[in-house]
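HUMAN: Mind making up another protein with tokenized structure?

ASSISTANT:
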Amino acid sequence: MDSSVKKGLLRNLPKLALGSASLLAALYVGLSPRLSPGLYTGRLFRPYAFPEGTWDVLEVNGIARQDCYFSGPGSPQLHGWFFDKPGAKKTIMFSHGNTGNLTGRLNLVRLLLETGSSVFIYDYSGYGRSKGVPTIQGICKDGVVAFDYLIQERGLKPTDIVLYGESLGTAVSCEIAAERSCSGLVLQSGFSSLRKIGQETVPIMKIYPQVLFPKPFLNAVERVASRTGYPLLIIHGSKDQVVPFSHAEEVYAAASEPKRFVQLPDCAHSDIWCTSPETFVSELKEFIEELP
């Protein structure tokens, strides 16, 4: 190589190194969960849009299905089913998991009705009959819009409503509880934080700090630790391989009182309705009956 070329390369080496570092930094930030949601939304959201699902259901446990359509400022039209149980003192607001739509949770709805409560289950944007496209910020907003529907259109009071979250829905329920008052909060098969479950599922996510994850951070540990005024019930299966049992232990340890923890030793992630239905109903019913 010509000596003049060598000298030129040596003189420009710091600039080349700086340019390479800048490029790597840009790629690192640009591919982060916060700035590139398209890289993870396929894993996080698996909606079944209408007509996929079982939509010909007229009643559950003899309680007629009532279709509900509602929306909030800047939100798409959302859809839910309300099961109005005669004599019920509480209404369970059911925020479901990341896959399917509300029609796939009817076995759980049946058990929730057995607690003596009414049940309201709804679909996030892009799920079932709800319009739009699901995003982390969007589904949390959907939850608040659904809660406000119960207050404004159904005439319920915050103290009438028990927030119930399943899997991803536990994070949504925590976010609702951070913005609205409620009677109680139930977290079933939930993760401690989006960052932790993301790192366990996709190990490369470990290179990213919290700040490079999307807001809201969906951190149940932080939410339950700072909550005030309502009791918490955590339900989790010991054999859960989707969200390890350790997540529930972490959330419970961080939670302030009053709190209760129900461990279901024979249950995995989505089989509570058929594996331990009696224990599930008994524990949940007792929790609800003790609410103020």
In short: The chain has two domains: 1-30, 38-289.
